Amino acid sequence: MRLFLRKFYWSFCLCFVTILNCSGQHDVDSFELSINFSPSFTNHGALFISNKNGNSEMRLIVYDSKKEFKIKHQEKVSVQKSQLTEILNFLERYDFKIKGSIDTLSSQRVFRNGDSTTAYRVSIGSDGITIKGSYKKNNLNREFAFWSPEKDSDNHRLAQQLFVLSNGSLKRKRSLDYIKTLKSYFKE
Question: What is the CATH architecture of 29-183?
């Protein structure tokens, strides 16, 4: 009986420690978020946010406007996992769509002469900013693209969250100035 109790005790302790270790893990899953910014009147750029092997980082690249893919400026910083919570939660419910320079802002059913049709309100333009991106997590790659989103749309909220995260993480003046310039393409 005593041997049984000892085995039970040690089995209980091992299970209890395992439960404590597992419940204490709040690590962010591995992921990669890549965003390309193509504003109409300033340098193109890219923002990469990732978590690999428990290390979270952000990298901003600003390209030279005169030479395609020539890097004008870049900055790479570590990001606290707690800073990623809001954007990762947002991406879990984000509707990944590919849109170009014609964005559908809304639609409604219209009835005329007994017939119904769908009317779309669209935004068309060549000025503004195009954002293309991809989000890789758990062997799933989801892509999105949009042009100068309307205020209060999910695309606008995504851009705003990227700006907040960038402003809280990037340190160099040139990086922060670039983010400020990009932000000017979005209606407040």
Answer: 2-Layer Sandwich (3.30)
